[in-house]
């Protein structure tokens, strides 16, 4: 008769090694998925870090119509594909008005839009399209002011 004790120890060792490899592959798959999802969020968040867009002047052209001058500082990349502006008074606000217009560093541009009477605040945000084709909005900035008439 043959002694099979040595063979069972080798088989047991191989099974343990294979189970360890399978467990590592499963854990790596989960971790890789989490890292890939976080990577997109981090890239989107950091894309807007150096971008500063602000309303520098709001002029009341006629009753309820305004010219809003927007300026961008020199920081950040040329990723801004458009601007969203909301004009607010003490009691009312315009809806979000979107201007699909590339906004490069050091650019100053004026936009005409409607808003409530007695506007005292402009909220501005730039946006861009990420690698997935989704619209990503940079943090908005709000500026309080006294509306200037003609």
Describe the structure in your own words:
With 150 residues, this protein is an alpha+beta fold. The chain folds into two domains: 1-47; 53-149, Macroglobulin (MG2) domain (Immunoglobulin-like, Sandwich), CATH 2.60.40. The protein has one helix at 5-47; strands spanning 53-62, 65-72, 82-88, 97-99, 108-114, 121-129, 135-137, 141-144, 148-149. The radius of gyration is 28 Å and the shape is rod-shaped. It starts with a helix and ends with a strand. The model has no long low-confidence stretch (mean pLDDT 85).
Condensed summary:
29% of the residues lie in helices and 35% in strands. The protein is an alpha+beta fold.
Layout: helices, strands, pairs:
Blueprint lengths: L4 H43 L5 E10 L2 E8 L9 E7 L8 E3 L8 E7 L6 E9 L5 E3 L3 E4 L3 E2 L1
Parallel strand pairs: 1-9
Antiparallel strand pairs: 1-2, 2-5, 3-4, 3-6, 6-7, 6-8
């Amino acid at each position: 008769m043959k002694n099979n004790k040595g063979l069972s120890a080798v088989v047991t060792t191989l099974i343990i090694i294979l189970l360890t490899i399978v467990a590592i592959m499963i854990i790596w798959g989960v971790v890789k998925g989490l890292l890939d999802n976080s990577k997109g969020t981090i890239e989107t968040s950091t894309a807007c870090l150096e971008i500063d867009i602000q309303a520098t002047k709001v002029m009341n052209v006629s009753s309820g119509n305004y010219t809003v001058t927007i300026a961008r500082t020199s920081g950040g990349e040329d990723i801004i594909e458009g601007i969203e502006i909301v004009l607010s008074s003490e009691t009312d606000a315009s809806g979000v008005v979107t201007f699909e217009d590339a906004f490069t560093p050091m650019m100053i541009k004026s936009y005409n839009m409607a808003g409530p009477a007695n506007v005292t605040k402009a909220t501005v945000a730039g946006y861009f399209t990420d690698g997935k084709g989704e619209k990503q909005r940079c943090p908005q900035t709000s500026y309080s002011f006294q509306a200037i008439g003609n």
